[in-house]
Model the fold of this input.
Amino acid sequence: MTEAVAKANYKWRVVDIVVAAIIAVASGVIFWGWDIVCSAPLALFEGVTPGFEGLLNGFWLFAGPLVAIIIRKPGAAFFGETIAAVIETLLGNPFGVAHALLIGMAQGLGAEIGFAVFAYRKWNLLTVTLAGALTGLSNGLYEWVVTAGWSTLQGVVFTVCCVISGAVFGGALMWFVQKALAKTGVLDRFESGKADVVA
Done:
């Protein structure tokens, strides 16, 4: 296994900010689209057992890890997830402004911790999957704390399902998305587009 170890260049360039913002805005639009259609799938999964719907939360958990794996700078995950939440909120969502923004920041912080554990130097499938899992963990814990009336079992099931969804959809899948984008050449101005990574 070969790991990508990035050079310690933490300074954000203008192109980093612009591309991070573009990805975050696009992610926010996807979040908003999922807001519109999520009711029936969430109800179906919740019908299996309360909390099981957390498996579908990955549709809200990918912005931070995706922005971070492309930009590869401290703060990128938090920036990506937070801006995506802002866009989702501006477009209108059924959860309220405060909830959408706070949970977005919580998710971004979770993803950020996943990359910070490796001092922002390792960018491989493992680190992105960990970041996605921690995004899901933050999401699950936030929902559990702010949602009144949940039993311990429901909170645990929901949080575990969010972690799984975050690891798979928000983490591992975003790794492959980044690799596919790199092959097109659109990431040539970034380390993520130049590194020969085998995870």
In short: The CA atoms of residues 16 and 71 lie 6 Å apart. The two ends are 6 Å apart (CA to CA).
